[in-house]
Design goal:
The complex is a heterotrimer of chains A (about 300), B (about 250) and C (about 260).
Chain A lengths: L16 H26 L3 H15 L4 E4 L2 E3 L4 H8 L1 H19 L7 H21 L6 H29 L5 H33 L9 H4 L3 H22 L1 H11 L25 H29 L1
Antiparallel strand pairs in A: 1-2
Helix pairs in contact in A: 1-4, 1-5, 2-4, 3-4, 3-5, 3-6, 4-5, 5-6, 5-9, 6-7, 6-9, 7-9
Chain B lengths: L19 E9 L5 E10 L4 E5 L6 H8 L6 E6 L2 E2 L5 H7 E4 L3 H4 L5 H12 L3 H14 L15 H13 L5 E5 L7 H13 L3 E5 L3 H7 L2 E6 L2 E7 H4 L3 H6 L6
Parallel strand pairs in B: 3-8, 3-9, 6-7, 7-8
Antiparallel strand pairs in B: 1-2, 1-4, 4-5, 9-10
Helix pairs in contact in B: 4-5, 4-6, 5-6
Chain C lengths: L14 H4 L2 H17 L5 H17 L6 H6 L12 H4 L4 E7 L2 E6 H27 L2 H10 L4 H30 L13 H32 L16 H20 L3
Antiparallel strand pairs in C: 1-2
Helix pairs in contact in C: 2-6, 2-7, 2-10, 3-6, 3-10, 7-8
Classes of the chains: A mainly alpha (about 300), B alpha/beta (about 250), C mainly alpha (about 260).
Chain lengths: ~300, ~250, ~260
């Protein structure tokens, strides 16, 4: 009984291993940074706060409002979590939500979770907070307006990243997946924007201290404006470019070595006992052999441990 | 707890069921748990009826059927209209259901907006909406709270506002779930006076037997998904066996 | 809403249930990685992996079709991959007209598409089995043992603890809104889209405030019991010999699957 507000949760099997690993590396680094930052700013209060907030985001994703013809608008929450809790805490909260969605409800895969967290938790928070942060000192109306745009852009950025990952994994055709994903999410983003703005307005009215001076929301450094803005600008520039000249992009990607359209299995790490990027060289054969030895050694060691545990 | 048969010695004035008629309502939850085993009752204009019974008897479940939130087998008629999926919005204008926890009911920032929600959803013109909000707040004696933030109110105040949010739709039937639960004596007294003065047909579920005795001439006793007694309050409260059999105490 | 609506765990005393949660988590992830490593069209390997999955289903005492029945949930996402049918160069198999385009399904495209589906289908089933035979709190412990930062696992634990409470509140809020969503003859009911979004945002905002203030109360309760920033947990899990054997066996099976995949 779980509700998914957007079709962005990628299941296992749809991303290549290399893309999954790259996304995991990025995600793990950012999370590590987020942990050290929240340790400093929130102190010991952070755990119950972020825990309950994670449950809040999860539950809030179920709130709907009828849009038209049977469809409903929903909240994904990345921008909102970052705006209200501060960017780093917001990222940790979203990470937990996406982790539980994947682990418990299989909404999103396990190996591809790094990508899902990046798309729905990190980038949405960065763009959402970055744009909002630029309104420091402005009127309520400006803040809310920008927050709405921020929320919309955060969803679009996540959708674009998702499309790129799918394309680079050889799962989807660039020319189709980008317009499809961006098109669908332009509407979903609208729902996100509306609810985010309305929820923030509510909080401003009832607990202005949570969003005012000195709150977690205001404490994020101004650099976020740059980061969030940069990502947003890349999105705005990149998507029409990508749709307009997909062949150009494919060419670039092939040159860099990401894609080999003709091969049937360009993404396996050890095809035919060689490693890609190294080609059929002696080094890769040796490496493959080493891996084989490690595997056998591990099996033997485990059996040894098992015998010991019995004793 | 074995359920006893309906007592036929209680006298209630003959009633056509012009406000509410429930005929043989059955309901089971998706997980198989059977909550209602055939409920039948009638409410007439002006009735003030208490609904009592132990926890798990099905009182809340029954109430959720009366405005169509849950749908079981059997008939529910409100003011002569059969409750069907199609006319749910119309039924909801006639049946005002107030939940036990006022926090569930108050989801707008200000009191005014919460009370205005019902009429706004109904599509009424602005002047009508304002008039209804003022009338509803007046009826619960909370006119001074019009622009307050719901968030800041006490439990007792929230409960009265919650009633107002429903009154603004001008329902013909008011259904309250445990209205006096969690109230201090003063708030409770205020609530009792309010309910006494509201000239509207009422069905109120409660554990507060003193409230029953003071306000409601008629009582329906439920247990294990069935109506086990339906009659004059003063007679039911005299029947010690009945009360004990269904986990109730004399006030 | 029933209190165990969010529980995926099915209580049994099977061999799988009794395995250390770390082993189960690792084997699941390794299985998924193994699937990702298999090239397109490695049917022999996919078949062998599937047999492993069925064996796990049987060992769990949950029935041979347990994971299969629940696996179809992820199917809609397959639409995303449909484009590979047409975009990978190869021998044409089927052609048809769609609007003005002439679409050709190639053999390589079909192979890729089916392989993606099979990988995904196998992987999601193993993930389903994992949470069916492992209590979620145990799974969280396993993550901690596997070096996931404690702060994250604690947040997840809190999420799990308060998930039901908060989603129940949401359901009640939605119910309250529904109860007042009435119509009167002669007027257009429902309000405009902006008003509806505003109401939804109000509900979210309400829920947020309540959650925020609830976390304050929780924090106070923790302080009252001596909390000073660090959560200590006991380590209830000890690797038994069968855990080591199962891990070794799983590695062997995965290795065989990978070798089969190269043919």
């Amino acid at each position: 009984m779980h509700f998914s507000p957007t079709p962005m949760h990628i299941p296992d099997g749809f991303l290549s291993l290399i893309i999954s690993i790259i996304c995991w590396i990025i995600t793990a680094s950012v999370i590590g940074l987020a942990i050290s930052k929240t340790n400093k700013s929130l102190g010991e209060k952070q755990i119950p706060l972020m825990g309950v907030m994670a449950a809040f985001i999860f539950a809030a994703q179920m709130i709907n409002f009828p849009v038209a013809g049977g469809t409903s608008g929903h909240l994904l929450g990345g921008a909102m979590a970052a705006i209200v809790l501060g960017p780093w805490a917001g990222m940790l909260v979203m990470t937990s939500v996406i982790a539980v969605q994947g682990l418990l409800f299989q909404d999103g895969g396990l190996v591809v979770m790094g990508a899902n967290i990046l798309n729905m938790g990190l980038v949405t928070a960065a763009v959402g907070y970055g744009l909002y942060r630029s309104t420091a000192g402005q009127s309520k109306a400006v803040k809310l307006g920008v927050a709405g745009v921020a929320a919309w852009l955060s969803v679009m950025t996540g959708a674009l990243l998702t499309s790129l990952q799918l394309w680079l994994s050889g799962t989807s055709d660039l020319q189709i997946v980008i317009p499809a994903m961006l098109g669908v999410h332009a509407l979903i983003g609208l729902g996100e924007a509306l609810i985010t703005v309305s929820a923030l307005a509510f909080i401003m009215q009832t607990r202005p201290d949570l969003l005012g001076e000195g709150s977690e929301s205001a404490k994020g450094s101004r650099n976020w404006v740059f980061v969030g803005g940069l990502i947003a600008v890349l999105v705005v520039l990149f998507s029409p470019l990508a749709s307009a000249d997909p062949d150009g992009l494919e060419r670039v990607a092939t040159d860099v070595g990401f894609i080999n359209a003709g091969q049937s299995a360009p993404y396996s790490i050890i095809p035919d006992y060689t490693l890609p990027f190294l080609g059929e060289t002696a080094i890769s054969t040796i490496l493959a052999g080493v891996i084989g030895v490690i595997v056998v050694g591990a099996v033997i060691a485990l059996i040894g441990r098992g015998l010991k545990a019995r004793a | 707890m074995p359920v006893t048969h309906v007592k036929s010695s209680f006298q209630i004035p003959d009633c056509e069921g012009d406000v509410l008629t429930v005929k043989d309502l059955h309901f089971s939850y998706p997980d198989g748990h059977a909550a209602l085993h055939g409920i039948s009752l009638k409410l007439c204009n002006g009735d003030k009826v208490a609904l009592v019974g132990p926890n798990g008897a099905g009182k809340s479940t029954l109430m959720l059927h009366l405005n169509g939130i849950l749908g079981g087998h059997g008939e529910v008629e409100v003011s002569g209209q059969r409750l069907t999926r199609e006319n749910l919005p119309a039924i909801r204008a006639m049946v005002g259901l107030v939940f036990q926890n006022p926090d569930d009911q108050l989801f707008s920032p200000t009191v005014f907006e919460d009370v205005a929600f019902g009429p706004l959803h109904m599509g009424l013109p602005e002047a009508d909406v304002r008039a209804r909000v003022d009338a509803a707040l007046e009826a619960v004696r909370m006119s001074a709270y019009r622009d307050r933030l719901s968030h800041h109110l006490s439990v007792g105040e929230k409960k009265r506002i919650a009633i107002a949010t429903v009154l603004s739709m001008n329902p013909s039937l008011l259904i309250l779930d445990e209205p006096s639960a969690g109230l201090d004596p003063r708030a409770r007294r205020t609530l009792i006076n309010l309910l006494r003065e509201l000239p509207i047909t009422m069905l109120v579920s409660t554990h507060d037997m003193k409230l029953v005795q003071e306000l409601f001439p008629r009582t329906i006793v439920m247990d294990e998904g069935l109506v086990v007694a339906d009659g004059l309050t003063r007679e039911i409260l005299e029947d010690e066996n009945l009360l004990t059999a269904h986990g109730l105490e004399k006030p | 809403m029933h209190f165990d609506a969010f529980d995926r765990y099915h209580e049994k005393e099977s061999f799988l249930h009794r395995l250390d949660p770390r082993v189960k988590a690792l084997v699941t992830v390794t299985f998924i990685v193994s699937n990702a490593l298999l090239p397109d069209g490695a049917w022999l390997a996919f078949g062998f992996a599937w047999i492993f999955l069925i064996a796990a289903n049987l060992l769990s005492q949950l029935g041979i079709g347990y994971t299969f029945k629940r696996s179809l949930v992820a199917l809609p996402f397959a639409l995303i991959a449909i484009t590979v049918l047409f975009s990978i160069p190869g021998q044409p198999l089927f052609t048809f007209q769609l609007f003005n385009s002439h679409l050709v399904i190639t053999d390589a495209g079909l192979l890729r598409f089916l392989s993606i589906l099979v990988r995904s289908w196998l992987s999601v089933q193993m993930a389903i089995l994992l949470v069916a035979v492992t209590r979620f709190p145990d799974l969280i412990h396993a993550l901690e043992h596997l070096k996931v930062p404690a702060i994250l696992t604690t947040i997840i634990a809190f999420l799990y603890r308060y998930l039901f409470v908060l989603t129940d509140e949401v359901f009640r809020l939605i119910r309250a809104r529904e109860s007042r969503s009435a119509a009167s003859a002669g007027n257009r009911a429902g309000g405009g889209i902006f008003w509806r979004a505003k109401v939804a945002g109000n509900m979210a905002g309400q829920l947020f405030l309540r959650s925020y203030e609830r976390s304050d109360r929780i924090y106070n309760a923790m302080l009252s019991r001596g909390y000073s920033g660090h959560l200590y947990t006991l380590n209830p899990h000890e690797m038994k010999s069968r855990d080591y054997y199962v891990t070794a066996l799983a590695i062997v099976v995965i290795f065989i699957v990978q070798i089969l995949g190269r043919f």
